[in-house]
Design goal:
- The protein folds into two domains: 24-135, Jelly Rolls; 151-308, no CATH class.
- The protein is mainly beta and 313 residues long.
- It has helices at residues 57-65, 278-282, 286-289, 298-312, and strands at residues 24-33, 44-52, 75-79, 85-89, 100-105, 117-124, 126-135, 151-156, 159-163, 172-179, 189-191, 195-196, 215-220, 293-295.
- The protein is 11% helix and 27% strand.
- The chain contains four helices and 14 strands.
- The strands form five sheets. It has a four-stranded antiparallel beta sheet with strand order 1-6-3-4, with no helix packed on it. A three-stranded antiparallel beta sheet has the order 5-2-7, with no helix packed on it.
């Protein structure tokens, strides 16, 4: 598997098989030896890039009601001088989606001499593209610079073409239109109307753009001059928000309400009248200016019924 993990080339390590539930398989690990080139002193990091085939709400409910193994996030095990592996880091989570990078601090885990062998273990369906190491650079000064939005426009676009070349490769979208017909049962409620929504995205304040399936949010930022000689630049889009799907075992999966809020980490109050929702009460004007597009699942329901009605005629 060394060849598969050597380069970022969308060739993924896939050996653990599949379990009875999507996202969970047998307990397994990938084992690595750090090369001599990796320093023995100073900050050192394991860099693991891959993706996870996740469970969903219904699967999690089923697992909780049965006797199957629960999901276990990543843990790091290190071999001692006798070759016995011991768990040194646990609760490391997992790659949060497709093509994500996990960083694990290796500082202080190895002796001054001898081999440096480690294992990254889990029972989740995680597929690694590259596994490597990097030296920590605490002396490097970061100079973050925030760019203000110059434009944010919401519109309806439809659905992009997606492709998955094999079960071990993540499904990836291409920015090519596949269609505009409804594909899922929409959650009923008020969504943000199309047009300029920049004012809703200026701060983390529970004023958010409520998007539906098929919507597109286009963002524009000002152009900046190139970095000075000797400096490197990365661009990072920082987003703060929530997602709720239509899985029947997702809390309140049929409606947009209740609206999530940063004031509470809980999402257990059943939806009631819009005028009684805490977010509505805090930002009432937004529901007169922005959140005016009422969506129901009728479009998809009627589309599914149409062929049967046509046969009757």
């Amino acid at each position: 598997m060394s060849e598969l993990a050597a380069a970022r080339d969308s060739r993924y390590i896939d050996f653990a098989g599949r379990g009875p539930y999507q996202g969970i398989t047998r307990a397994h690990f990938v084992e690595m030896d750090l090369p001599d080139a990796a320093p023995r002193g100073g900050p050192l990091w394991l860099v693991a890039r891959g993706w996870i085939h996740p469970t969903d709400s219904s699967i999690n409910v089923a697992i909780g009601q049965g006797t199957h193994a629960s999901p276990e996030g990543l843990s790091l095990h290190v071999a001692d001088a006798a070759g016995r592996f011991r768990e040194m880091r646990k609760g490391l989570g997992f790659p949060a989606g497709k093509d994500k990078t996990v960083l694990v601090d290796l500082t202080g885990l190895f002796s001054a001499t001898g081999p440096r062998r480690l294992r990254l273990a889990t029972n989740l369906e995680i597929f690694w593209d590259t596994l490597g190491w990097a030296i920590g650079r605490p002396e490097v000064e970061l100079k973050p610079r925030r760019l203000a939005l110059t434009a944010a426009d919401l519109s309806y676009r439809g659905y992009s073409v997606t492709e998955q070349l094999s079960p071990s490769v993540p499904e990836r979208p291409r920015y090519t239109l596949a269609g505009t017909s409804p594909r899922w049962r929409d959650l009923e409620g008020y969504y943000t109307r199309f047009g300029d929504v920049r004012d809703l995205l200026r701060a983390v304040d529970d004023r958010y753009v409520i998007m539906n399936a098929g919507d597109e949010l286009r963002l524009r930022f000002p152009e900046v001059p190139p970095p000075a000689p000797g400096l490197a630049r990365d661009f990072i889009v920082v987003g703060d928000g929530w997602v709720k799907d239509g899985d029947y075992n997702t809390s309140f999966s049929r409606t947009v309400l209740p609206l999530p809020t940063h004031r509470s980490g809980r999402y257990d109050a059943p939806p009631g009248r819009l005028e009684e929702d805490p977010v509505y009460c805090q930002h009432t004007r937004d529901f007169g200016e922005y959140h005016t597009r009422y969506v129901t699942p009728d479009t998809l329901r009627d589309a599914l019924r149409a062929p049967a009605d046509a046969k009757k005629r």
